[in-house]
Amino acid sequence: MTEATEAPQSTESASAATVVASTRDELRAARAALTGTDVAVVMTMGALHEGHADLLRRARESAEHVILTIFLNPLQFGPKEDLSRYPRTFDDDMEIARAQGVDIVFAPTPDVVYPDGDPGVRVSAGPLGDMLEGKSRPGHFDGVLTVVGKLLHLTGARKAFYGQKDAQQLLLIRRMVRDLDFPVEVVSVPTVREHDGLALSSRNTYLTESDREVALCLSRALAAGAEQAAYGPSAIRRAARAVLVEEPLALVDYLVLVHPSTLQDVPEWYRGEALLAVAARVGTTRLIDNTPILVGPGGGRLDVFSQADQES
Ligand SMILES: Nc1ncnc2c1ncn2[C@@H]1O[C@H](COP(=O)(O)OP(=O)(O)OP(=O)(O)O)[C@@H](O)[C@H]1O
Ligand SMILES: [Mg+2]
């Protein structure tokens, strides 16, 4: 885990407007210096892209103050996952933070977040955490929720912004906030894509040029599925599957059309909002993508789920 301890030390690198805090004391001091109490948080693992910038922009629009957290959380990486090679671009991240008017960047090392080492007590994601992403990444969502809970406490934020790209993570954070009574409003942000449809992701930097071509089949499959929204679940699944089978170099982990709050496959008679989600390995990189869909006559692609389905 020592690979994760590269500390962004300098406070000078921040402009007067954006304060960098890497310890709990620095965060407390920076937090106390904010004039208002309306604080939003955007949580990231760094290597920021336009998707993160959009989260920050929306947070900025809806709250008086914005805290950006940059933390590579060892707890959510499996033993065979890519923590040590994860891209680190702190200076570029600071540029984006400043451009978006972020008040505080909290960029701690693991020993700051977990001063006693591995936490004995963790948040359990429950059965939803064992489905889809959780099947391939055991313990991942317990690690995510544990750090999200800690960062909500440490930042004292009352609004938290997350990307729809990580649909299961978003669902589980909403559930945690509701089930454990966190006084926080969770806001979903639509997935930001490249001009050709590829969902932005920090891990896209691992893709070779030819991997990137292959990777386009994920967003193409979602688009093809969504086009069949009016005709019901099997038409949607069939159209999406047909795109993926044309690309044997994408090793598909799952392609599902599920209910947005239970993640169970929707039955053929289902009409309403559903999540079409895909995960595949392309080269050495595991990619995920999804789209919310309104299934049924007049249906089609949605940016995010409606409030009724969001549960908090
Ligand atoms: N393309 C995107 N559009 C909108 N939000 C995004 C996008 N990609 C990531 N996010 C959101 O940014 C936040 C931080 O995510 P994270 O740091 O894991 O970035 P990432 O690009 O998903 O990285 P990785 O590829 O390693 O998972 C999450 O709420 C995530 O959903
Ligand atoms: Mg991510």
UniProtKB/TrEMBL annotation:
Pfam families: Pantoate_ligase. The reaction proceeds by a bi uni uni bi ping pong mechanism. InterPro entries: Cyt_trans-like, Pantoate_ligase, Pantoate_ligase_C, Rossmann-like_a/b/a_fold. Its EC number is 6.3.2.1. GO terms for molecular function: ATP binding; pantoate-beta-alanine ligase activity. (R)-pantoate binds at Q76, Q169. Pathway: Cofactor biosynthesis; (R)-pantothenate biosynthesis; (R)-pantothenate from (R)-pantoate and beta-alanine: step 1/1. It is found in: Cytoplasm. GO terms for biological process: pantothenate biosynthetic process. The keyword Nucleotide-binding applies. Belongs to the pantothenate synthetase family. It is an enzyme of class 6 (ligase). Beta-alanine binds at Q76. Homodimer. It catalyses: (R)-pantoate + beta-alanine + ATP = (R)-pantothenate + AMP + diphosphate + H(+). The active site is at H52 (proton donor). Catalyzes the condensation of pantoate with beta-alanine in an ATP-dependent reaction via a pantoyl-adenylate intermediate. The keyword Ligase applies. Keywords: ATP-binding, Cytoplasm, Ligase, Nucleotide-binding, Pantothenate biosynthesis. It comes from Knoellia subterranea KCTC 19937. ATP binds at residues 45-52, 163-166, 192, 200-203. NCBIfam families: cyt_tran_rel, panC. It comes from the Bacteria. This is Pantothenate synthetase. One of its GO terms (cellular component) is cytosol.
